[in-house]
Amino acid sequence: MSLIVQKYGGSSVSDAESIKRVAKRIVETRKAGNEVVVAVSAMGDTTDELLDLAHAVTPMPAPRELDMLLSAGERISMALLAMAIKSLGHEARSFTGSQAGMITDARHGSARIVDVTPVRLREALDEGAIAIVAGFQGFNRDTKDITTLGRGGSDTTAVALAAALDADVCEIYTDVDGIFTADPRVVPKAKKIDRITSEEMLELAANGAKVLYIRAVEYARRHGVTLHVRSSFNNNEGTIVYNPSENPAEGLPTESENAVEEPLIAGVATDLGEAKITVVGVPDIPGKAAQIFNLVAKTGANIDMIVQNVSAASTGLTDISFTLPKTEGQTVLTALRADQSDVGFVGLQYDDQIGKLALVGAGMRTNAGVSARLFTALYEAGINIEMISTSEIRISVVTRADTINDALRVVHTAFGLDGDTEAVVHGGTGR
Amino acid sequence: MSLIVQKYGGSSVSDAESIKRVAKRIVETRKAGNEVVVAVSAMGDTTDELLDLAHAVTPMPAPRELDMLLSAGERISMALLAMAIKSLGHEARSFTGSQAGMITDARHGSARIVDVTPVRLREALDEGAIAIVAGFQGFNRDTKDITTLGRGGSDTTAVALAAALDADVCEIYTDVDGIFTADPRVVPKAKKIDRITSEEMLELAANGAKVLYIRAVEYARRHGVTLHVRSSFNNNEGTIVYNPSENPAEGLPTESENAVEEPLIAGVATDLGEAKITVVGVPDIPGKAAQIFNLVAKTGANIDMIVQNVSAASTGLTDISFTLPKTEGQTVLTALRADQSDVGFVGLQYDDQIGKLALVGAGMRTNAGVSARLFTALYEAGINIEMISTSEIRISVVTRADTINDALRVVHTAFGLDGDTEAVVHGGTGR
User: Fold this and answer.
1) Which structural domain range is residue B80 located in?
2) Nearest residue of A to residue B93 by CA position?
3) Segments of chain A with pLDDT less than 50
4) pLDDT digits over A168-217, tens only?
5) What is the rounded distance in angstroms from the CA atom of residue A46 to the CA atom of residue A309?
6) A19 and B57 in contact by Cβ < 8 A?
7) Which reaction does it catalyse (chains A, B) (predicted)?
8) Tell me, what CATH number does A105's domain have?
9) How would you classify the pairing of strands A306-308 and A274-283?
């Protein structure tokens, strides 16, 4: 008997009809002889509606109470899902994050999981029941308070349960067919990826692929959980995200066996959510970069790419550019301006009209010429590259925002990723 | 320092504005130097909306899951109320029924309180915080499941917390100014009652007065909790419900001191929610009534009045009539029909066009002539009495449903209850 953890996002349980449909799918999985644990998000826009209510009451809701409030969303969806399954004649029991043993630290709104003790889930499974767990929420042992995990929390709940219960697979249900080589809304010939390593998935997620949250992928990679990303609207196979070194999931080739066949490039991601800050005229003496990025770190901003130009020998000054989420731009600018005289730079430039494209593939490790092919494709399309950054399995470039979709299409074609048919695109996005 | 428990119903917290208004009132109570514990219902129609969702998913929702679902309603209102209070600069903490120590049996949907262990509330109060508790919900220790208390559950939560914390008073906030001598929508000259004994209140509640639930009054009476029923829309004094023997609340006269001044009649209640079943032609031999009411008891129906006519000696048959909630009528008729031949009665009559009027007053104990005055008033108004039932402090009569409002008005006048001015009537009803 296999143990399968399934996660259904808000768009999969947006109303009573969707909940009944999802209940049927869960029952089918159970009937096929599997033990089933389900992590479920709040219905449709419930979380946003609750946030609106909170902000109608006070502009700065207390974090403990906000978590208490938001946790009501999953409580509603999980109870409805459990009763829908029971009405189909199968035993089901719903559990809050606390009841499911999701123990977190006390950081309300973005709590980290510190332990998972799914004793009651194991009991329910042993009694033949399907366990329905509230995604996104946990419990702090010291304060005895309810916490929430923040964005992508339900994915993380599912992966953490899969790890703790030693599940065979963690199925992430969403409204698209899986992970694609590029966003199918921009590249109609994008292909669904059948298999991808968790390392590659991590790079894609970190660079703008929206289907999976980086945090859940990271948790899965660290705990050897195999993910299966698939649509809740059909029965198609989706995308397997696996960890080749630790967990060669049954039937899947390990990395070494597969090296020669492995596609050079797994996929291409783009991101329009970043801005670029350039610190102009920084004295080219040791310790200045450290000083700048210590200032930035204090704001809590998440820096992505960093580029330092060679200094012009005549002036003894250099420019340092970095990208970060647009939402964090003003905070960082303010922090830098406050210490301008201390650091001794000349000025600041802020640019939020940039786009980032990242080419990801484990095959890069053993293949030269990938950068050359990427730069050539962009050059031939007349697209200017403003910044470049690389990792072992990724190359990222920054271009003007309004050229990013063209860049995505030409790169997708240049690396032979185009499929023969157009991908079917569903609307909406899950949480 | 006094400890005050306050209960706010759904109509007092129907939207963000109401919640902010209630938060201000709570803060005023705290500023006046009191410790404050608040029991709050779900916002406005939330509970009904959740029930609708459940029934859209399945016609027969599993009771455990239905309780899990409904408990989300108070979770939302209590978190919003706590954050509203905090935004006014006062410390507040919300607690679920489980966190507040409301321990119940496992009867989902109508759980009974078996213990109250408000350890976390006491801690919060000792730290100077206002404790906000989800009304209506509890927790079963054996199953570790969430339960709900059923109709009037939030009133019961408030009273149970007041008893466990030895509160000085339990304030029940609603959308009317208190308990009236009669329903002010029917009797415009009905007067607000300043003080009423819990025994009288119990009779009024049991006979159709809607403001307080009989269960909460019973709990208050048994545990010596003084209630103050008042409006959340103004600062008027409401109605004090007190237990003269056990708890002569400060400033209130005890029963004996006050006996001569005590009004003869506390109030008049009416109820259109009952139906009458007459079992026609019952053999007038010992044990037949027991047989009939054992059958009825097995259905779980709540019988109210019972009348047996003297048998006509010539036939050896008698008729037995009783009233019960209309909602239970069909079940009881079915049960009786099934055993008709065994009991040996001739037939059944069902009448759901009846109204019940109850005159309640502890003064009746020592005053003759109350029934005579009641029957005379009804006779002079041309209203026919179909059934009569009495207790030590109550007389109830059944009339045709369409005469009940006239009956209420003439009785109210006959006993000198009419006030000089018309009562102000607010719309809506709380839960």
Assistant:
1) 3-253
2) A65
3) 247-249, 251-261, 427-431
4) 999 999 888 999 999 988 999 999 999 999 999 999 988 888 888 889 99
5) 47
6) yes
7) L-aspartate + ATP = 4-phospho-L-aspartate + ADP
8) 3.40.1160.10
9) unpaired
Check: CB of residue B403 under 8 Å from CB of residue B374. no
Residue B423 is predicted with a pLDDT of: 62
Dihedrals φ, ψ of B228, to 5°?
A: -130, 105
The token pair at B25 is 């009132």
B262 pLDDT tier (thresholds 50, 70, 90): low
- Best residue in A46, A48, A76 to probe B by mutation, most B CBs within 10 Å? A76
Contacts of residue A49, defined as CB under 8 A and 6 or more positions apart, other chains included, come to none
Is B60 in the A-facing interface, judged by CB distances under 8 Å? yes
Are residues B79 and A99, on separate chains, in Cβ contact within 8 Å? no
pTM above 0.95, yes or no: no
Q: Are strands A227-231 and A239-242 parallel, antiparallel or unpaired?
A: antiparallel
List of chain B residues whose C-beta atoms are within 8 Å of the C-beta of residue A86: 58, 62, 65
Segment (H or E) for B92: strand B92-95
How many angstroms separate the CA of residue A56 from the nearest CA in chain B?
6
Asked, for residue A321, whether it belongs to a domain, the answer is: no
Question: What is the average pLDDT value for chain B, to the nearest integer?
Answer: 89
pLDDT digits (tens, 9 = 90+) for A37-65: 999 999 999 999 999 999 999 999 999 99
Amino acid at B280: V
Contact (CB, 8 A) for B144 and A120: yes
Distance (Å) from the alpha carbon of A149 to chain B's nearest alpha carbon: 18
User: A28 in a domain, yes or no?
Assistant: yes
Instruction: Name the β-bridge partners of A180.
Output: A192
In B, minimum Cα distance to A21 occurs at B57
Q: Do A65 and B94 touch (CB under 8 A)?
A: yes
Q: How far apart are CA A417 and CA A396, in angstroms?
A: 17
User: Which residues neighbour A104 within 8 Å (Cβ) at sequence distance 6 or greater?
Assistant: A111, A112, A113, A114, A138, A139, A140, A147, A149
Q: Residue B20: inside a domain, yes or no?
A: yes
| Residue B342: pLDDT over 70 | yes
Locate tokens 């008049």: which residue? B268
Mutate to test the interface with B, among A18, A83, A90, A96 (most CBs of B within 10 A): A83
CB contact under 8 A, A83 and B61: yes
Q: Is B75–A71 a contact, with Cβ atoms under 8 angstroms apart?
A: yes
Say yes or no for a CB contact (<8 Å) between A99 and B144.
Answer: yes
Residues A388, A161 contacting (CB under 8 angstroms)? no
Whether the CB of A19 is below 8 Å from some CB of chain B: the reply is yes
| β-pair partners for A102 | A116
How far A244 CA sits from the closest chain B CA (Å)?
Answer: 40
Q: Which of A189, A180, A236 is nearest to A421 (CA)?
A: A189
pLDDT in tens, B387-425: 888 888 889 999 999 999 999 999 999 998 998 877 655
If you search the block for the tokens 């066949």, which residue do you land on? A261
Closest CA to A19 of B69, B100, B414, B139: B69
Report DSSP state, residue B332. H
CA separation for the pair B72, A137 (Å, rounded): 14
A143 is a domain residue = yes
The shortest C-alpha distance from A150 to chain B (Å) reads 18
Q: Quick check: B113 and B150 in contact, CB under 8 A? A: no
Burial B304-321 (b: 16+ CB within 10 A, else e): bbbbeeebeeeeeebbbb
For A230, B91, B150, B152, the CA distances from B219, given in Å and listed in that order, are: 54, 30, 15, 12
Domain count, chain A: 1
List alpha helices for B207-280, DSSP H: 214-223, 255-258
Quick one: tokens of B249?
Answer: 């609340």
Q: Which of A46, A69, A77, A141 to mutate to test the interface with B (most CBs of B within 10 A)?
A: A69
DSSP assignment letter at B403: G
